[in-house]
Amino acid sequence: MKYAQKDIVEVNFLFPDGSNKPHPALIVSNNDLHDTEGFFYLVLISSKEFDYSRQYSYPLHDNMLNGCTFAKKSYVKCHIISGYTERDVVRKLGSIKEKYFNEIVDKTIESIF
Length: 113
Prior knowledge:
Helices cover 19% and strands 42% of the residues. It is α+β, with helices and mostly antiparallel strands. It has one domain: Roll (SH3 type barrels).
């Protein structure tokens, strides 16, 4: 397994309008799913904050990250999830620290369920 839960990777993210664009994303699904099924779930990371989605976003700061930084203020979009496989990943950018990862998972659960 090349990628694991808490990794920040770059993928060609598929948007609802059918377009796709390279974007950083955070792997949120557990490693067992990846090992047994061959795919994982990601949440989008974006530098755009929209007023309507503020309640579904989690702000990122450099001190939360391992091995990477973002040039612009960035947000995890806790309501935008997609499934991917290793072949869909362009590259690994870094990872997120455990404490912040857990907060993002909680925010994602709150946003969706």
